[in-house]
């Protein structure tokens, strides 16, 4: 199980414990102390999730950079990048001499759809000529 899943389970467990504590008639001071501890635990779990996500993104960026360096040494007609708007990995095939774009995977139409989906915008799958 990865770190994010483990932390998500910890947050759920903490939320369940908090709900149980609210349901039990216990000494008010103990309930407040337990709830404060649960809040601190949930905040720590959320911070760990964010750190793991940032580390994952840094590793992805590093891998893309290494692939670009490798391809540049072997052949200068491929470029790897991450489309920031959609989060998709993009591979561009370039003409070696001119740098002109020959092909892009995925193509711009797909990237546009991915951006719209990410932004919860309506997606038109049928082209209309106007």
SSE map:
Blueprint: H1 3-23, H2 28-74, E1 78-82, E2 89-94, E3 101-105, H3 108-118
Antiparallel strand pairs: 1-2, 2-3
Helix pairs in contact: 1-2
In words, what does this structure look like?
With 130 residues, the protein is of the alpha+beta class. It folds into 2 domains: 72 residues; 56 residues, no CATH class. It contains 3 helices and 3 strands, in the order ααβββα. Strands 1-2-3 form a 3-stranded antiparallel beta sheet. The longest helix is centred in the middle third of the chain and has 47 residues. The protein starts with a helix and ends in a 12-residue tail after the last helix. The mean pLDDT is 75.
Number of strands: 3
SS content category = alpha+beta
Quick one: overall form? elongated
State the order of secondary-structure elements, H for helix, E for strand. HHEEEH
Largest sheet: 3 strands, antiparallel
Strand order of the largest sheet: 1-2-3
Distance between the termini: 51 Å
Query: Measured on Cα atoms, how large is the radius of gyration?
Result: 24 Å
- Total domain units: 2
Proportion of β residues? 5-15%
Q: Uncertain segments of ≥5 residues (pLDDT<50)? A: none
The helix content is 55-70%
Output mean pLDDT.
Answer: 75
Helix count from the secondary structure assignment: 3
């Amino acid at each position: 199980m990865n770190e994010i899943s483990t932390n998500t389970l910890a947050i759920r467990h903490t939320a369940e414990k908090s709900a149980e504590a609210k349901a039990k008639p216990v000494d008010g001071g103990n309930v407040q102390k337990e709830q404060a501890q649960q809040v601190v635990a949930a905040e720590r779990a959320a911070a760990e999730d964010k750190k793991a996500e940032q580390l994952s993104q840094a590793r992805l960026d590093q891998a893309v950079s290494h692939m670009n360096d490798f391809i540049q040494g072997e052949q200068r007609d491929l470029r790897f990048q991450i489309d920031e708007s959609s989060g998709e990995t993009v591979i561009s095939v370039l003409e070696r001499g001119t740098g002109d774009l020959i092909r892009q995977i995925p193509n711009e139409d797909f990237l546009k759809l991915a951006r719209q989906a990410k932004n919860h915008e309506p997606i038109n799958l049928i082209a209309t000529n106007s």
